Amino acid sequence: MATKDKASNVTENAKGKIKEVTGKATGNDRLRHKGKADQAKANLKQAGEKVKDAVKP
Length: 57
What we know:
This protein is mostly helical. It is 91% helix and 0% strand.
């Protein structure tokens, strides 16, 4: 399950990056900020997965 979660986090991060770049290219600050927020959320989840891996015996 952890591998699936990690892949999901990477996908979410990529989608956030696409939103950020699209927002920047079109001048849409709302979309750009949403993309940054999505990336931050994915990075937090990824950090949680790393903690889980470190705690596993």
